[in-house]
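Internal tracking record. Fields below are filled automatically when a chain is submitted to the structure queue. Please do not edit lines marked as system-generated. If the sequence contains nonstandard residues, flag them in the REMARKS field before resubmitting.
Queue: standard
Priority: normal
Entity type: single polypeptide chain
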Amino acid sequence: MTPSKQGVKGGVRKRALRKRPAVMAATSVVLDAATGGSLQAQLVEALRAAIVAGRLAPGTRLLSTRALAEQLDLSRNTVLNAYSRLLSEGYLVGQLGSGTYVARELPERLSASRRAREPVAAPKHTPGISQRGLAVARLPDLRITAPGISASRLAFRMGTPSVDAFPSDLWGKLLHTRWRRSWGDLLKRAEPAGHPPLRRAVADYLATSRGVRCVPEQVIIVNGAQQAMSLAAQVLLDPGDAAWVEDPGYFASRGALVAAGATLVPVPVDAEGLDVEAGMRLRPDARLAIVTPAHQFPLGVAMSEARRQALLAWAARSDAWIVEDDYDSEFRYVGRPLPALQGLSPDARVIYIGTFSKVVSPALRVGYLVVPESLVDAFSAARRFADGHTPVVEQAVLADFLDEGHFSRHVRRMRVLYGDRQAALVEEARRELRGQLDLSPLHTGMHLVGWLPEGVDDREAAARGVEAGVMTQPLSAFRTQSPGPGALLLGYACVPEKEIAEGVRLLARALR
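SYSTEM-GENERATED OUTPUT FOLLOWS
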């Protein structure tokens, strides 16, 4: 269809909707274009409101995207993207080979407020909300959450470890033993910087496994990597300061910077990682750079030695800081893990961030920062005023888990398991997705990048996958400015091999 015909059809469609509301007979949901906003946003809001109000009862089967598009005179992509949004929010669930249904249990955070956030559509002026608050609200929420979908339908969820392989019995024994020995101490107020035994265990682990230069006093325990980034932005930046971010890159780190009032400077990423020269051309006066050098998110490349040295030199010359997010470097399947950027120079201006959520469990909200000795007091104070401290029982058990060698053994087992799952995903993709998705193995990480044929919209491809019961992320969702071909991100760590095969078949069917 030519652009002129598209415009004519779109105009006719909007005029028809303004004349009378379009009613979805099978769902009793009214769509009214006179309210303004995109047709997709209106459809999402109408369906969501009908589900929350009970007009669409739990378990109700929705029309197929094709049938609903024909009934409302909408493009099928509009309906696909609307269904995808509601699937990711947990209002809808996909049943393999059956269709799309209203979730049996609505997400608590959404049903309580009776409407989901629409960050990109936030008003320009909202009484009582700061400009930084509005900026944070407008950031897209790229998390994939679908409470109604069982664990067997999580292919290919991103950033989730294999919880089924977690040594739960061992963890329970450690918890019981630690509580019996020191429950009185565990119930007392803890130090904001963290439980001392855990800080010592983390420092020892990082020195031997990641080449990080630190003493226990430099380790600050936090509630996950996200809080670590927020603290770094709060301590190191003033409102308006420029900060380099990878493009494409991790959106959660951008949220921390926006909340701190920073000016984001998207810097392109290539096969060698962050393009330092491009960053210096864009904003040489930046005060901070957030990078993922060991395994760039989401492309999976490792930062070259030349780029690492250039980045360190820029920080030293510009009196700037580097935040190194080392989110899943434990999982390297060829050779030894690359040493941390932080350990390359004794006076490196690097804030190192790690997390146990990607290794142990996403429910274990324990992460850590390693900061220069000159910043320990400032970060400890910021940690104290943020929320006091991380729960002490979890810290104590985790310290025992590290000290007794269980953590290292768990990581070794997971390397073998994830390596096998990655190989299975690549093999199935070569067999089932030839010509549809170009998937190559990587030496590290928990996800792969599947490149789509030229001209294929990765957001539409991801939406079609969700409709078929397969969760992927479109690469374009992580881009800010840098153009590039479409791709899908496929997480494999939490998906057993037999379900990898099923997921690939479903994805191949969706991409046809």
